[in-house]
């Protein structure tokens, strides 16, 4: 087992990561996703400008108690047919998602600017589906499912907890 120290500019602390020689990793990570490389994130709705583009949710930034240029996220319009898709550009085998919802809500903020998606469905390129629920928290939320070979993951049937803004700050998909 190898020991690595990750130092990230803008974060207040160091994070110790213990990794083996395995290729198990966040297969959705792409800090430069807007340049045409894979993976890519797309959506049927983006509020305003690139500050709320789908690719922001796969850039590796997990700071989520806010929004805007300093805390980019996927921020869609308020509508009932939303989808958010990560295309890996090749077949991968995955078994979990880790999601940070945009959390500009009490008790983390003075006002409830945001809500969160309380439930949804993950669809895979072979047509299979996995339902999930999320909680009102700024913490990472882990969604486990049986190992799945897929070329993409699409989050559909997203149901907001309240009629406020909802968004994903970061979506990690783990596998090989």
Automatic annotation (TrEMBL):
Signal peptide, first to last residue: 1-19
- In its keyword annotation, does this UniProt entry include Metal-binding? no
Q: Is Signal there in the keyword field?
A: yes
Q: Name one Pfam family in it.
A: DUF7402
SUPFAM superfamilies, alphabetized: Galactose-binding domain-like
Q: Name the InterPro entries for this protein.
A: DUF7402, Galactose-bd-like_sf
Q: Which organism is it from?
A: Lentisphaera araneosa HTCC2155
User: What's the source species' lineage?
Assistant: Bacteria, Pseudomonadati, Lentisphaerota, Lentisphaeria, Lentisphaerales
The DUF7402 domain is annotated at: 41-174
Alphabetic keyword roster: Signal
What is the protein's name according to its record?
Answer: DUF7402 domain-containing protein
């Amino acid at each position: 087992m190898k020991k690595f120290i990750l130092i990230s500019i803008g974060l207040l602390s160091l994070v110790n990561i213990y990794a083996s020689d395995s290729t198990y990793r966040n297969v959705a990570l792409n800090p430069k996703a807007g340049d045409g490389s894979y993976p890519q994130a797309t959506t049927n709705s983006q509020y305003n400008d690139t500050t709320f583009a789908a690719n922001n949710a796969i850039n590796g930034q997990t700071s989520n108690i806010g929004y805007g240029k300093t805390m980019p996220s996927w921020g869609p319009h308020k509508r009932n047919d939303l989808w958010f898709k990560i295309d890996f550009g090749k077949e991968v085998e995955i078994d979990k998602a880790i999601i940070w919802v945009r959390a500009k809500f009490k008790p983390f903020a003075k006002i409830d600017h945001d809500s969160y998606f309380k439930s949804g469905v993950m669809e895979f390129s072979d047509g299979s589906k996995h339902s999930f629920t999320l909680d009102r928290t700024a913490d990472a939320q882990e969604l486990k499912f049986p190992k799945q070979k897929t070329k993409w993951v699409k989050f559909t049937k997203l149901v907001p907890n309240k009629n406020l803004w909802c968004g994903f700050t970061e979506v990690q998909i783990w596998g090989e």
